[in-house]
Design brief:
By secondary structure, this protein is mainly beta. It has one domain. It has two helices and eight strands; from the N terminus they run αββββαββββ. The longest helix is centred in the middle third of the chain and has 7 residues. It is globular. The protein starts with 14 loop residues before the first helix and ends with a strand. The mean pLDDT is about 85.
Length: about 120
Amino acid sequence: MSNTKPFLGKATSNPSEAFPDVISLSLKITQDPSGWYSEREGANVRHMTLNSLSRSVGCLNKRCQQGGLDLQNIIMFYESGTFDFCCDGHEGSPAGRNKGDPCDNRFTVELEISRKKR
C-alpha cells in the first residue's frame, strides 16, 4: 500500500486539511507481534502525530502484496483506544497474477485523539 496517496481522495497531503475536526492525535502502531517479519528490533513500531501522519503504513511481510493498514479510516471513525487490525494483503505470486493466502500480519493501534466539539 503506497504512502503517497492523498487523504480523502483529494490532492491534499496535509492531515490538518483532511481532518479539520481533529485538534491533536497520537498514534502508536505495532505490527508483527511474533517477530517473523522484522529485520531489526524496534522496526515494527511507529509513532505518529497529526503533523507526521501518513496515509497508510506498509506491511513488513516481504511476501505481502497490496497489504498494509489504511490510517485514514481509523482517524475518521475511531475514538481513543487500542485496536487490533489484520493486514488486508495477500501472499500472492511474485508476478502478481495469482492471489494467494491472506497475509497473517497484525497491527495494534494505540490511538489518542482529541476532536473539536460538534
